[in-house]
Amino acid sequence: MSRAPAGSAVAASAPSRPAVVVTDLTRAYGPRVVIDGLNLVIERGEFVALLGESGCGKTTLLRALAGLDPVDHGRIDAPGEAAVVFQEHRLLPWDSLWRNVALGLPDQGARERAAAALSQVGLGHRLDDWPRNLSGGQAQRVALARALVQEPELLLLDEPFAALDALTRIRMHGLVKELVARHRPGVLLVTHDVDEAISLADRVLVMRAGIIAAEHRLDGSGDRAALRLRLLAELGVHAESEPA
Amino acid sequence: MTTLDPLASLSLPGAGVPPRRVLPKAVSPSPSRHTAGSGLGPYRLFVVSWLAPVALVVVWEVLARAGWISPQVLPAPSKVLTTAWKLTLNGSLLLDLGTSLLRAAVGFAIGGGIGFALGTLVGFSRLAEAAIDRSVQMIRAIPFLALLPLVIVWFGVGESQKIFLVALGVAFPIYINTVLGIRQVDPKLVELGRVRNLGPIQLIRRIILPGALPSILTGVRYALATAWLALVVAETIGAQSGLGFLAMDAREFLRTDVIVLAIVLYALIGIAADSIARHLERSLLAWHPNYGDRR
Questions:
Q1: Interface subset of A 134-163, CB within 8 angstroms of B
Q2: Which of A53, A91, B24, B41 is 20 to 30 A removed from A198 (C-alpha atoms)?
Q3: What is A69-123 written as a DSSP string?
Q4: CB contact under 8 A, A86 and B295
Q5: Any idea where the domains of chain B sit in the sequence?
């Protein structure tokens, strides 16, 4: 990073503290239990992907971690700041790009910090442009800059690439990898895409019936094709019959 | 101006503009776009659009001068202009105009302020909605001009009666559109504000009011029209000054030139108010795809 804010160096010097610790989390909508005594630890600098069928509770978990939903039972300890990138970019259409990125920052030096974050996602030349002039991929890059400008210890990604076309998605994967390596927050990526999970994450979780049903570490040595088939099977897709 | 546009040389071959280099596009204040399919440049279309109104005034002038229209029915346009000039010179026209504008402005400020305050309250709080909204909607069901006899009993025919009527007409459109605007703010953006830990004041300032602004400005445009209507009625009923007084006073002496002048002035001010409102929309909503200047 060319203009490193003071905060990143301080945070990096304390790697022992996990980004988030979830203990026995339970969340129910009426009689329907969506999260059922879930435990999860994400270290700083660790990239965790969360897979699961629709309605398995993975978005509910992310919303609870973001502090958007109340916790019925259990604990969430996220000592640092948490930032969220949603499936939709959620840019404020009435604010310029830099003001969008600076939303919620103290006024002092906000524009400089926003400019630095925007140049990290390749949009440093469009600080004063309106969101309506952006493509879907560019808007999502601004949303990513807006999340990272907070220097979060926990970065929550709620299917942020799902609405993008295939090529833009691949470019975004590269960008996210690079930025996460630079800022080293703990990352929880909620996705439907097994290949996305394998290509980005250090650890892939499969959520089923409100708990973490399976967990796989990617240390680089394992067989990715085999892992892909296993993950698909754990998600209820039996791909053996498909042509390779 | 148009010489930067490659189409310009095609569609305006005989415009007689010598080929020259025109550097900054910012020099031309108006967008110089060509309307597709018309075969005419924007300048010629503009001229065409004014042909009919100008012809109408000319025909009116000719008929009035020839005596086909009695001056007591409709005076010639030139007569109206002369009267306007005379009344301007002796100062009475500006005084009446100023009086009317002041009434409109004060009534608009009071009514708009009340409408906006109540609308904001109801927009944010379901409790306030339960407490206030039904009463407001019931009063709104009354055509506000129907209250005129009652308003005269309350206030007489002084300034307060006129300002009250204008304020009454203004308050409802502002109220309704403020409530609507606040309710229509995308809840996903409000959620974003919560994720960013915005306090309530920041949330209102950065997300809710800007999101409600298009609707509020629509309310302002409606309110300007109602304000003007209310003023015409209030001044016509009883006044010792103002445009309405000018017209009613002239009626006593069959001075149709003064009456027509007052009517034309009402129209002009209405147009001016609307264009101010539209200018506000364009500048405040530059971000909005439906309002802002296209790049």
A1: 150
A2: A91
A3: S--SEEEEE--S-EEEE-SS----TTS-HHHHHTTTS-STTHHHHHHHHHHHTT-
A4: no
A5: 2-65, 85-284
A104/B198 touch (CB, cutoff 8 Å), yes or no: yes
Question: Is beta strand A20-29 parallel, antiparallel or unpaired with respect to A32-42?
Answer: antiparallel
Contact at 8 Å (CB) between A206 and A234? yes
Q: Which residues of B touch A103 (CB under 8 A)?
A: 192-193, 196, 198, 206
Contacts of residue B45, Cβ cutoff 8 Å, sequence gap at least 6: B35, B38
Question: What pLDDT, in 10s, does the model give residues A148-207?
Answer: 998 899 999 999 998 888 888 888 899 999 999 988 999 999 998 899 999 899 999 999
What is the model's pLDDT at position B24?
44
Q: Decide if A94 touches B, using CB distance below 8 A.
A: yes
Judge whether A194 and A231 are in contact, CB under 8 Å.
Answer: yes
Rounded distance, CA A118 to CA A131, Å? 13
Q: How far is CA B28 from CA A68, B31, B102, B286, in A?
A: 50, 7, 35, 19
Mention the CATH class of domain B85-284.
mainly alpha
Contact A67 B295 (CB under 8 A): no
A206-226 residue pLDDT tens: 998 888 988 999 877 677 888
pLDDT, tens only, B128-154:
999 999 999 999 899 888 888 899 899
**Residue in B40, B92, B144, B110 with CA at minimum distance from that of residue B255:** B92
Walk me through the domains of chain A, giving residue ranges and CATH numbers.
6-241 (3.40.50.300)
Residues in chain A closer than 8 A to B191 (CB atoms): 68, 90
Inter-chain contact A83–B195, Cβ cutoff 8 Å?
yes
Q: What is the pLDDT of residues B178-190, one digit of tens each?
A: 999 999 999 999 9
| A106 interfaces chain B, CB cutoff of 8 Å | no
Phi, psi of A186 (to 5 degrees): -75, 135
Q: Which residue has the tokens 């967990």?
A: A215
Interface with chain A: mutation pick from B194, B196, B205, B284, highest number of A CBs within 10 Å: B196
CB contact B205 to A (< 8 Å): no
* Closest CA of chain A from B210, distance in Å: 7
> Taking 70 as the threshold, does the pLDDT of residue B25 lie above it?
no
- Mean pLDDT estimate for chain B: 84
CA torsion through residues A101, A105, A110, A116, sign: negative
User: How far, in Å, are A40, B34, B105, B241 from residue B98 at the CA level?
Assistant: 72, 41, 10, 10
| The two structure tokens encoding residue B27 | 């020099």
- At B232-287, the pLDDT tens digits run 888 888 778 888 888 888 888 889 999 999 999 999 998 999 899 889 888 888 88
- Band (pLDDT 50/70/90 cuts) for residue B291 is confident
